[in-house]
Input
Amino acid sequence: MKKHCALVAAAAGSLALLSNFASAEDTTTPAVYTADQASAGAAVYAQSCAVCHGSALEGVAAPALTGDAFHEMAQAQQLTAATLLSVTAQTMPQSNPGTLTPEQYNQVTAYILQQNGYPAGPAPLTQDAPLLKDLLLK
Ligand code: HEC
Output
């Protein structure tokens, strides 16, 4: 029993260290965006993406950005949060690539991550946030 308690204490210690980076609910997946960014991103998405990708990201004229199809694509491309951001910023909206502001691209990427169940945290999503390339989407 004593040994077990020591293990729990050690685990709690490393959780405290991690909590700078990941949300309390999910310590294995890096938290790379804030909840505020995701809610701002919902508006960006509705305005600039929903017409092709569907209002629930379900895919209409363009592929789904959530669900099995999205996860398969993410796996096939070994997509990370960083590549999701750069692909989106460079090629989307397909009708008018590069027309959003950098912060709008950050926000809409945060929204897509949120809709796919990735955790929000204290650190905002930015192009050079160090954890962005560590979040492998699957
Ligand atoms: C005019 C229609 C259109 C609009 C608007 C549009 N997309 Fe797309 N999008 C597409 C099509 C078509 C594809 C699939 C072909 C491709 O990958 O270029 C795609 C692919 C994607 C992909 C997958 C890229 C990959 O890795 O294969 C992402 C992510 C994406 N869009 C995000 C967005 C976001 C975010 C917005 C809003 C800022 C947006 N799209 C707006 C048509 C659109």
Q: What stands out?
A: Residues 32-134 form a domain with the Cytochrome Bc1 Complex; Chain D, domain 2 fold (CATH 1.10.760.10). The chain has six helices and no strands. The radius of gyration is 17 Å. Residues 5-24 have pLDDT under 50 and may be disordered.
